[in-house]
Write a structure and sequence with these properties.
The protein has helices at about 30-45, 115-120, 125-135, 160-170, 185-195, 220, and strands at about 10-15, 60-65, 80, 90-95, 95-105, 110-115, 140-145, 155, 175, 180, 200-205, 230-235. With about 240 residues, the protein is an alpha+beta fold. A hairpin with a 2-residue loop joins strand 9 and strand 10.
Length: about 240
């Protein structure tokens, strides 16, 4: 699902059959992962070597991408921003939420990997603040696309997580059969709106990865598995 139609960006969320596993750390042969990246780049029309992905560590760290960054030197962080053209940014996930940001006026983009840790420490706010500080972005001009991620239907967490975070995020929990389930996307949507992102500027796929393993990789549902991706590039 893509409701935004901008001529100066390209963006896409992949699935299992659209580039297959794209991560190097899940046990697949490096040559096979490289072949998947080569296939995806050719399919979508970008240069693989210019793509910047990340060594994701479940943080709220944001890296500013320039011409020195490339495919073979992924920065250690969980978000990327740039205003450089023809540098695709990639976030990889398998239950965590992939988020894409686009400033239609200042022509800047960002991607974020929002797991529980990054969400609890408001990685979306860090991305937006970085875009404001680096590129002069204004929140009213930022569009956000949220990809598929594990839903509250499947994301069970321990009672300790609930007790630690219920004061701040009680609205995002459901309790069923004395078990605790968390909606990461409910928190993300709230944080985006708190930052000033307009509701009409947000698109949300709203598909649970754990319920749809025929299309998406899901760590919770499958254990050791691959990663799909969100990709965004200024043209």
């Amino acid at each position: 699902m893509q409701k935004f139609d901008f001529l100066d960006i390209f963006y896409r969320f992949t699935t299992r059959d659209f580039g297959a596993n794209l991560a190097f750390h899940v046990g697949d042969e490096i040559s096979a992962v490289l072949a998947n990246h080569t296939f995806l780049a050719k399919k979508l029309g970008y240069k693989k070597d210019t793509l910047v992905h990340m060594k994701q560590i479940h943080s709220n760290l944001v890296h500013i991408v320039d011409e020195q960054d490339h495919f073979d030197t992924p920065p250690t962080c969980d978000a990327l921003v740039t205003n450089k053209k023809n540098i695709p940014l990639m976030v990889m996930v398998a239950d965590c939420t992939p988020i894409l940001f686009y400033d239609s006026t200042c022509k800047a983009i960002g991607v974020a990997h929002a797991g529980r840790a990054g969400t609890f420490t408001n990685i979306v706010s860090n991305v937006i603040e970085t875009m404001k500080n680096e590129y002069g972005s204004k929140v009213e001009n930022i569009f956000v696309s949220i990809g598929s991620a594990i839903g509250v239907c499947c994301y069970e967490v321990g009672s300790e997580i609930y007790e630690e975070s219920k004061e701040k995020f009680s609205y995002a929990f459901e309790i069923r059969d004395k078990k605790y389930y968390l909606s990461i996307n409910k928190i993300l949507l709230s944080q985006l709106q708190e930052c000033g992102i307009k509701e009409k500027n947000i698109e949300n796929e709203g598909i649970c990865t754990a319920c749809n393993t025929q299309e998406y990789f899901s760590y919770r549902a499958e254990g050791k598995t691959g990663r799909f991706a969100g990709i965004l590039m200024l043209k």
